[in-house]
Write a structure and sequence with these properties.
This protein has 90 residues and is mostly helical. 98% of the residues lie in helices and 0% in strands.
């Protein structure tokens, strides 16, 4: 009977080892899935960063154009005021 008990113990240990292996495989698959999701998120963030960089460049260019237009309008207003003063002083 000790042979039967030993065989039962071995089968029991084998069953536990298989359960542990299945758990390890499941954990690895979950880890791989999490990694893939994280990698996809990083790719989306990089795409967003690129888009935001382009939008920032466009906004900066627009701001520069507006600043130049503002300076031109200011210059023209000063010229117009000087012309009006010159006319009024005559």
């Amino acid at each position: 009977m000790s042979g039967d008990v030993t065989l039962k113990e071995v089968i029991n240990r084998l069953g536990k080892a298989l359960v542990s292996l299945e758990n390890a495989v499941a954990a690895r698959l979950e880890h791989d899935q999490d990694y893939a999701e994280a990698e996809a998120e990083v790719q989306r963030m990089n795409a967003d960063r690129g888009k935001l960089a382009q939008e920032l460049d466009a906004s900066e260019a627009r701001a520069e154009r507006l600043e130049n237009a503002n300076k031109e309008v200011s210059r023209r207003l000063v010229t117009a005021m000087e012309t009006i003063r010159a006319v009024l002083d005559r």
